Amino acid sequence: MSGDYTQADFLFKVRKAVRYIGLYGLARTLVKIKGQYHMKAAADFQGPRWVNPNYKDPDATSRNVAIIGCGNFSFSNIAYYLAKRDPKFLRVTCDIRKSRALSLCKTYGGSYAVADWREIVDDPQVKIVFIASNHASHAEYAVACIEAGKNVHIEKPHVVTQDQLDRLLAAMRQYPRSKVFLGFNRPRSPLFKELQEVLARESGPLMINWFIAGHEIDDDHWYFDEKEGGRVLGNLCHWTDLTLHLVTLEKAFPCTIISATPAGAKSDFVVSVIFADQSCASITFSAKGHAFEGVREVLNVHKGNVLANLTDFQKLTYEVIEKKTKKMLRHREHGHETNIVHSMAGSMEGSGGEAVSYVEATARFFLAISQAISSGKKVVLS
C-alpha cells in the first residue's frame, strides 16, 4: 500500500481515519487527510507568482513566514502548527510544483505564492524561512537565506554532503545574527525529555537499542536519488540524532561505527556505535510492507540503575531499582508542535538557535553512519 491513501477503498479509509483519531486526535487526523488531497492539487498559476486577492491584513508586518517546499509535511505540520499559534503567520510559499505552493498559500491565507525561491530571499518582510524541500536543496536555500539576514528552520537532514555542511557552518559563523533551527522534533517530545532527566541522574555508560519500522516506499521514490542521500539521511537521521542526545555531545566522540546491513539494502539498516564513554547503541530500521499506524518506534535503554522503555513516543516505562514508573499519553507526541513553534518564537524574539557545534556534530554523525552502511566498513569519527 503506497502513501497515497486517496486511492484506497472506502472501508480502508474509514479504518485508517478511526485508528488515527485514536493515535493523534480528531484535529490532527483531519489535517492529515487534507494533506493527502493537497498533494494531488491540480490548480496552477501563470507567471512567476500568484497574489492572493483575499489578502487583506492591515498589520502586514505580522505575516513574516516563508515556506520553501510545500509537500505534505509543510501542509499538515509546519503550517498547521504555526496557524494554531498565529493565524496571520504566512507571507509566501514556494515549491517547484506551483500547484502545491498555491494550495498551501490559499489554505493558510498567505500573501503570495512563487515558483522561484529567490523571491523569498529578496523579500524584506520575510523574517524566518521554513525549508522542507527535497533534501539535497536544504543547505543551498539555508545558506542563501542566512546570508540575506533571515532566520531559517531546516527540516531534516540539514545537509547531505560534507561540502554542504562546511558551507552551512561557514555561513552560520559569518552571519551569527541569523538564527538556525533544525527540524529534529523528537528531542522535544515530553516523554523523551522526561527520560533524559531520569538518565541524567545516573552515572556510567548507556546501552541503547532502537527498533524502527518505517514506511515502505517505491523503488522510484525521489528519496533513492543518489544526490538526496537515501533513507539513511532522509529517515535514519532522526534516531542517530536522538542517540546523540542520550549520550550527549561531550561524551560521544570519538566513536566507532559498524554496520551489519546487507549489501545494497535501500530501506533496511542495522548499525552499531561505540561511543567515547563506552556507551553502546544499536539502531535497526526496517521498512517491509505497509505500516498501518505509521512509523513505529521502540527504544530500550539501560544506564546505572535505570532500565527504560519508550514506545511510539506515547508510552514510557522506567525502573529505578524497586521503583517502577509508567507514563501513557492520550496521543502520540513526537514534539512536532513544540519544535516548530520554538523556531518561530526564537526568530521573533531574536533568541535561541542551534549552536554551531551541535549542527556540525549531528550532521557528521549521520554522514559517517551513511558511509559505514554504504561501504560496509568500520568508520571511526573523531
> Topology as H/E string?
HHEEHEHEHEHEHEHEHHEEEEEEEHHE
CATH architectural arrangement of the largest domain: 2-Layer Sandwich
Q: Return Rg in Å.
A: 21 Å
Number of helices: 12
CATH third-level topology of the largest domain: Dihydrodipicolinate Reductase, domain 2
According to CATH, the homologous superfamily of the largest domain is Dihydrodipicolinate Reductase, domain 2
Identify the overall geometry: globular
Which oligomeric state applies?
single chain
| Total beta-strand segments | 16
Q: How helix-rich are the residues, as a percent range?
A: 25-40%
Mean of all residue-level pLDDT scores: 94
Largest sheet, described in full?
A: 9 strands, mixed
Strand content: 15-25%
Number of domains: 2
Distance between the termini: 42 Å
Per-chain topology:
Layout: H1 10-24, H2 26-38, E1 49-51, E2 65-68, H3 72-85, E3 90-94, H4 98-107, E4 112-114, H5 118-121, E5 128-131, H6 138-147, E6 151-154, H7 162-174, E7 180-182, H8 190-200, E8 206-213, H9 230-247, H10 249-252, E9 255-259, E10 269-274, E11 280-286, E12 296-303, E13 306-311, E14 315-320, E15 323-328, H11 336-349, H12 356-375, E16 379-381
Helix pairs in contact: 1-2, 2-3, 3-11, 6-7, 7-12, 9-12
